[in-house]
Amino acid sequence: VLRDGNEVQVIPVERISHFTAQGDFVEINTVNNSYLKYERLNHLEEMLDKQIFIRVHRSHILNLEFLHKIETSESGSRNARITTNASIPISKSGYKLLMQVI
């Protein structure tokens, strides 16, 4: 749920591709839009289904339904490429967690 002045907008959770921490805010990314919400990523993570939404990095939570592939660079860093063509960094601990779930 997002509040914009006097309006309340509901974003269905299945449309959300990923979340990105932006200080005290969270950027909520869908296929067509992104929104900012005053929320901590930790708090949001507690509310999400852990079989669908995986914290792959300290600043990113990924919806597995949007995962297209995992790319590894020459330096060994990993990124999740999602169906919206966004690239999301994956930490070492995030990769281990991701491999347990998929």
- Total number of beta strands: 10
Can you tell me the residue ranges where pLDDT is under 50 for at least 5 consecutive residues?
none
Tally of helical segments? 2
3D shape: elongated
Largest pleated sheet = 5 strands, antiparallel
Strand order of the largest sheet: 5-4-3-7-6
Helix content class: 10-25%
Helix and strand pattern: EEEEEHEEEEEH
Cα(first) to Cα(last) distance is 28 Å
Backbone CA Rg:
14 Å
- Which structural class matches the secondary elements? alpha+beta
> What is the arithmetic mean of pLDDT?
93
**Beta-strand proportion:** over 45%
Characterization of the model:
It is a single chain. A hairpin with a 2-residue loop joins strand 3 and strand 4. With 102 residues, the protein is of the alpha+beta class. It is elongated and about 50 Å long. It has helices spanning 41-47, 92-101, and strands at 2-4, 7-9, 16-22, 25-30, 34-38, 53-57, 60-63, 67-72, 78-82, 87-90. The longest helix is centred in the C-terminal third of the chain and has 10 residues, at 92-101. The chain is built from 2 helices and 10 strands; from the N terminus they run E-E-E-E-E-H-E-E-E-E-E-H. The mean pLDDT is 93. The strands form 3 sheets. The chain has a 5-stranded antiparallel sheet. Helices cover 17% and strands 47% of the residues.
Give a quick precis of the structure.
The protein has helices at 41-47, 92-101; strands at 2-4, 7-9, 16-22, 25-30, 34-38, 53-57, 60-63, 67-72, 78-82, 87-90. By secondary structure, the protein is α+β, with helices and mostly antiparallel strands.
